[in-house]
Amino acid sequence: MTPRRIRLTRAADLPGLHRALAARCLSPDLERVRASAVLLPSRSAAIQFRATLETLALEAPGSPAVLALPDLLARGDWYRAMHARARIASPMLSQLEREVLLNAAAREAVQEGFVPPFRMRPGLVAEMLAFFDALLRQRRSIERFEALVLEDLAPRAEFDRGAERLLRQTRFLAAAFRNFERRVDASGGLDEHSLRRQLLGHEGGPLYRVVVVAVADRAADPSGGLFPSDFDLLTRLPHLEAVEILATRRLLASGLGERLHEMVPDLEDESGEGEQSPGPRVAAPSESASRLFFSSRDREEELRAATRRVKQAARAGLVDPSRVAIVFGRPLPYVYLAQTVLEAAGVEYQCSDALPLAAEPYAALLDQVFAAVATRFGRTSLIELLRSPHLSFGAGEEGPSPRAIGDLDDALREAGYLGDPRRLDALAAGWSGDLALAARAACRACGALAPLATVAPVSAHIDTLTAFLDEHERPYAGADQPGGRQLRSRAAVRASLNELGTAARRHDDPPARLDVV
Fold it and tell me: So what's the pLDDT on residue 255?
């Protein structure tokens, strides 16, 4: 194993930690800088810190013509960067591919006689995968997990129904996880855990000479911290010469320091800057000396009030709006509100978090398709599909107008139509004019989506859905062209469908109903 120095630097406070981190990133030793990685809590933090480093370098006397920076990475990006640097031929498996493999492994476990005390559903596969990752990231083996639970539950299972259910669940999970590991190895791809094993046996050149850890562990930072398996990798990664861990004294005193000494042997502990920086001034409401915080009726009003204070300070010349940040604990609902509140106030902004894909209108189109299939093309769901602004059902003739679709809704209600495409065909044959035009459009939608109501391979369902979108997606022209956000959401939805279809064809493509895909 390569000898290395592992050092913990205790910063007096957060500004002190930032200064220590910037000093390591802006080192004049360019070769060392380019062979270094800095681990940060998130990709957004990496983007912001890169901008800070560039500003510091440009404002420094005698700023260099070329700025060399280390790789600023979140945890997941660090693994992907090491995979690329190690030039490992096996590709990394995507999350969807791993879910497909685990779903197949779970079915195999049931066939082997390990029947779980619950019905398998698509959402459970994702939770099982999260549990599998948590086990291995905590450096726990599947065998040890199974043995511990069986030791505790087996003596009570005969007379304790709850213990018996947990016992069956544990045996099922252990069997599914073993099958999953075997399927991952057979797939020719790598996940995080198999990549970690390959990196520990890497015999090529150094991946990184120095890794600076500017993030806590998962106990202290549940969203972006490192796991025990990551610290183990840092202590054993070949050719790594130095690991520098930076943390504030307050964070270390909360328990992180003790955990680091347990996880990292031979950890050198040293103090950073001794003096604390002057803390920021905190603005408090002027109308009450006893109240030290601003309160709002709801989160929208909270964001409006913050925007007003920023604009007032900017008009008074107290702040530069480009140097103002609004920080929130969770992205939602602030990323929704920013579009209306900040834009209405005429404030330009940049958001580090994005809206969830499910909230985008194009993604909601899939929900409309699934609802139509699930209700056997019932009146309400079918009319909603025809009214979708993203679809067109002309097929060589002019598509139905909104008024014609409304007339079709009334006619179907009067006819007592409850959701049988064959009855819809019969009704359409007896109508004329715009009503018949709308009815024919509804029949075309039912015909295109009918295969989704059958049991078919997963890839066949994806192909049917993709073909429907290709044929009936509304063409845009001129001023009706969608904006960049809509185009990005469309591309993300299409990419997800293609990825799922490819993963199914490559790894496991069982016949299934649409509701379990």
Answer: 94
For residue 391, the SS3 value is: strand
- For residue 215, how far is the Cα from the chain centroid? 19
- The average pLDDT across 152-165 equals 88
Average pLDDT (382-405) is: 84
* Structural contact between residues 193 and 136, judged by C-beta atoms closer than 8 angstroms: yes
362: left (phi over 0), alpha (psi -120 to 50) or beta: alpha
- C-alpha to C-alpha distance for 412 and 423, rounded to whole angstroms: 10
Amino acid in position 312: Q
Residue 286: the pLDDT is 74
- Strand 511-512 to 456-457 pairing: antiparallel
Question: How crowded is the C-beta side of 505, counted as CA atoms within 13 Å?
Answer: 11
pLDDT of 48 over the 90 cut: no
Phi then psi dihedrals of residue 337, to 5 deg: -65, -30
- Which residues are registered as beta bridge partners of 72? 38
31-34-40-46 Cα dihedral, nearest 10 degrees: 130
Q: Where residue 228 falls among pLDDT bands split at 50, 70, 90?
A: very high
Q: How many CA atoms lie within 13 Å of 161's alpha carbon, on the beta-carbon side?
A: 1
| CATH number assigned to the domain covering 5-89+197-271 | 3.40.50.300
Whole-number pLDDT of residue 296:
87
